[in-house]
Amino acid sequence: MPLDDLDDKWSAPQREIMNATYRTLLEHGYAGLSISRIGSEYKKSKSLIYHHYESKEDLLVAFLEFVIDRFEATITAGDRDDPGEHLKCIINRLLLHQPAADQWQIQKVLVTLRSQAVTSDSFREQFTRVDDRIVSVFSDIIERGITVEEFTDVDSSAVAEHILATINGAIYSDETTNRKQIQTVRTSLLAYLNTILY
Description:
Elements (H helix, E strand, L loop, with lengths): L11 H17 L6 H8 L3 H7 L3 H21 L6 H12 L6 H16 L4 H27 L8 H21 L5 H16 L1
Helix pairs in contact: 1-2, 1-4, 4-7, 5-7, 7-8, 8-9
């Protein structure tokens, strides 16, 4: 279970609710998600969920933040001494050809929730934040590579946005069609970065 990490930001009851939400989403999907079903997974009083979250949407916005915190931890880890290797490491983590079951499940959940951002301002704001954070990570690595003269002087924000758009498109296509192109997209993206950064 990828959502069991402990930290000071989330209380024990909140972590338990987030894990119950995760399991419910995997079993029933977004359409079948309800506070009642989350309560069944939570195995404690449903009223405790309402003590922390006023509605299903409030809970899911918090759930997105919870998942994103863990997601960000995975993309910021790596060889920080070598910007090129760090960048490649993150891209390889995000564009896995055969992700582990837990990684595939959380990716599926995120794609499902991202589709709700079309009609939900709260979800749109949360996904805007996560995309901004990912672009910032990529941009910082590229800037570091420029500073140490490993990379050529490029517009780091523009390159970071290109990386994010490519990754998001590949993941969304992988999860919503039978066109499995992750490996091809990763190879193409790394070739593009080799051309533009070196």
